[in-house]
Design a protein that fits this description.
2 copies of one chain form a homodimer. Chain A is an alpha/beta fold. Chain A has one domain (31-214, 229-245): Rossmann fold, CATH 3.40.50. Chain A has helices at residues 15-21, 48-57, 106-113, 116-126, 138-144, 159-166, 189-202, 204-213, 232-245; strands spanning 36-40, 64-69, 73-76, 83-86, 88-89, 98-101, 131-135, 151-152, 169-170, 175-178, 181-184. In chain A, strands 5-2-1-6-7-11-10 form a 7-stranded mixed beta sheet, with helices on both faces. In chain A, strands 3-4 form a two-stranded antiparallel ribbon. In chain A, helix 2 (48-57) packs parallel to helix 7 (189-202), helix 3 (106-113) runs parallel beside helix 5 and helix 7 (189-202) crosses helix 8 (204-213). At the A-B interface, helix 1, helix 2, strand 2, strand 4 and helix 3 of A face helix 1, helix 2, strand 2, strand 4 and helix 3 of B.
Chain lengths: 247, 247
């Protein structure tokens, strides 16, 4: 059996109609006319932290989403099995509307916090952003750059480190906004934060359209993602699975 | 201000204890001793489709998660702004425990369905998988390979295409299992499907541990991700945002 013919109709119903009727004037935008969103990758980042928000934010009208790292090229995740390409080096980027700093495992987070080139770049870029954001332990990296005030969130297992190191209150929400800084909780919380951010950047209706575009109607088969209600045993298991996968 | 010192305590509370006490015999596994999971990338894939499941499945004890494409190297997403590295070419991989085929926009999906090298490889690898899975329009690619039976899910806007082209019933669930084939709904549904799959591969307790490891306790700020309850206007907007971002 060969591949099915696909020419008679479009795979996505309604896509042809959209193309035929064009974009209403109010939302007709060319790529690059919308927000410039930069995501900082560094060795050992956790894969979903940047890619979840990137998926959603890339659907904002006219948005550009750029993966940035100390040097251009592939950047390894915490498992060392996967890489995402950095399309630009930090030396090539000094102006962003949105900066997003993802989280990592222990090793990657500490290395980023102690890397003056990354920390100095984050501070410099932050001066002109509209929003400076983080996912998971990325908030600790914002903390290392001196950008946290009052309250923030982070990965559940890093809450006490956040409070004792940076003197900010840990808030166990999916995302926490203080001024122009938005921190998200662990890994998957970046997706919820991205929807909130999309609404701030382009309005609630566009954010709702993006939610439908990525069919984000979550129904996990278990209800075990909240550390506040997890047993000590499950917390140990979660950290063990992370540690083992990051060896 | 320089970076904060990070040497006195660990960023992730409990991580040191986990390392010190070691892994109980029941879950002590070396990388590569668990499931071999392969994710097929192709030009124009949607970023979250492979990366959401990869994040979760990479925490399975001993798992290897390998990004695979027709050729090794960077593979562009549907927006053409981001690339994920394919670590292996299809010629290098003929045995997987889990195959995952992500979705793409109109152009990427059709090109993959009509690419005999990809379709033949999917068919060949499927013969020995434990699970053959898809996210979003990836199910149409499984359909092109002749692997769908009875029921499946797909991206909401592709439901009628799925039914009319492959003669299977579209089921509007987050994921649908028929035999060893599991199809997930659009984009973000791959995360829910990955938890279900993790439970099948390693048991409910490990799946719950993974859910906590990625803090997957979703609370989106809107409730607009379900096509069954979305207005026609919102559906049009969602498809327009997709079409614009994929130009």
């Amino acid at each position: 059996m060969r591949s099915q013919p696909t020419t008679r109709r479009t795979v996505l119903a309604g896509m042809a109609a959209v193309a035929a009727f064009g974009i209403p004037a109010g939302t007709a935008v060319a790529e690059g006319s919308g927000p410039r969103i930069g995501i900082l990758l560094y060795d050992g980042f956790s894969l979903l932290d940047p890619t979840g928000p990137a998926e959603l934010l890339s659907r904002l009208p006219g948005a550009t989403v750029t993966m940035i790292a100390e040097r251009r090229g592939p950047v390894r995740t915490d498992t060392r099995q996967t890489s995402v390409m950095a399309e630009r080096s930090i030396a090539e980027v000094d102006r962003l509307d949105v900066l997003l700093v993802p989280g990592a495992g222990e090793r990657g987070t500490v290395a980023a916090m102690e890397n003056p080139a990354l920390i100095d770049w984050i501070r410099r870029v932050d001066r002109r952003t509209t929003w400076t954001t983080s996912v998971c332990t990325g908030s600790l990296i914002l903390g290392a750059a001196g950008l946290l005030r009052d309250r923030a969130t982070t990965y559940w297992a890093s809450a006490s480190y956040l409070e004792s190191t940076f003197g900010v209150k840990y808030v166990p929400e999916r995302y926490v906004q203080v001024g122009k800084v938005i921190t998200a909780a662990g890994v998957s919380a970046g997706i919820d934060m991205a929807l909130f951010l999309a609404a701030r950047l382009a309005g609630d209706e566009i954010a709702r359209g993006i939610q439908l575009a990525v069919e984000y109607d979550p129904h996990p088969p278990f209800d075990s993602g909240n550390a506040a209600t997890a047993s000590p045993e499950l917390k140990k298991l979660a950290l063990r699975l992370l540690a083992e996968s990051q060896k």
